[in-house]
Amino acid sequence: MSHAGPHAAGGDRLRVGVLGAAGQVGRCLVRSIEAAPDLELAFAATRAEIDLADPSAIEPWLERFSVLPEVVLNAAGFTKVDACESQVALARQMNAEMPGAWARALAARGIGFVHLSTDYVFPGDGTRPYREDDPTGPRSVYGETKLAGEARVRESDPSALVVRTSWVFGPGRNFVVAILDQAMKRRTGEATGPLRVVDDQQGCPTAAADLADGLLALARLRAQGRSDVRGLLHLCNAGVTTWFGFARAILDQAGHGEIGIEPVATGSFATAAQRPAYSVLDCERARKLGVSLRPWTEALTGYLAGPDRPSSLIAAGSPAGASSASPSAMPSASSSEPVRRKVSQ
Ligand SMILES: NC(=O)c1ccc[n+]([C@@H]2O[C@H](COP(=O)([O-])OP(=O)(O)OC[C@H]3O[C@@H](n4cnc5c(N)ncnc54)[C@H](OP(=O)(O)O)[C@@H]3O)[C@@H](O)[C@H]2O)c1
Description:
alpha/beta, Rossmann fold, UDP-galactose 4-epimerase, domain 1, 2 domains, six-stranded parallel beta sheet, 10 helices, disordered N terminus, binds NADP nicotinamide-adenine-dinucleotide phosphate
């Protein structure tokens, strides 16, 4: 998916490079950049073109381009929260070392860097939304390595922007798809009984498309010389819910309102990684910079009606207006597996 080239100079357009361009956020970034008249996609790096876990690949990658981006957005990471617990070295490499190495290489060339981090850097015992300067305390290897990545990036390039977000849904495998998959299995009789979804973890669902647009708005501000667009920033869709509340809204909006769903405690499912019970992010700082995202319920409606919608899993005649599902198009994951374990973060 490399769109770059030696003749990629775009006049007044801001040249943007994307790392992790095949992921949920990465794909939305590429789409938004390509649609924006004031932006130019300098490169879109996927795993097929570069192994980001290999720091020696950075220099040759950058040397391929005679016209470099002015800013690089990093949407790559090892995001499988449970897998990070057993693949610690890879988690450290991808989530901590890689972002630091890129920030260093780009800073040496005067290229800006926007890096994504997570709500899972927080311990989850908070009682009000977490602000950027609240004490961290990750409870998982994923959260720990992402926190180390924040530090590496900021040490390597003090002008870098590190954006923490949460509960992302976009093109690809995510919680929305996992819930709809389970709903469809119940409709076809492949699975029975109510869905069981955790109701004691609170957070902010965030549409990858909205996040991508917010990140690009921040990149534009930086390009306009706003020196305060640096350091840590929280950015997610507005509103707070639990995984159960999120699942209920997904089922209702996708025309599966009749599917039973039961709230359960985190302890009901054994997962390799611990998740914070409360990881709501306070997005006031971003709002003051002029960037805020709509309520997550509206973002969900947009997702279910938009280009990334999992059409085959949406009921015919539902508010999302989808056509009926074709059983052959349905994923084959085991229905007995807890829904929470199938999503990345
Ligand atoms: N998803 C969430 O709920 C969530 C919440 C908070 C923060 N975040 C952060 O937001 C960012 C984007 O998340 P996302 O949901 O868009 O993640 P994603 O869909 O998992 O995308 C990550 C991308 O990184 C790529 N990647 C991983 N290892 C690579 C390697 N060695 N070489 C090249 N590419 C590699 C992946 O490629 P493959 O697909 O080939 O592995 C994937 O395309 C991440 O930094 C994540 O930590 C996500």
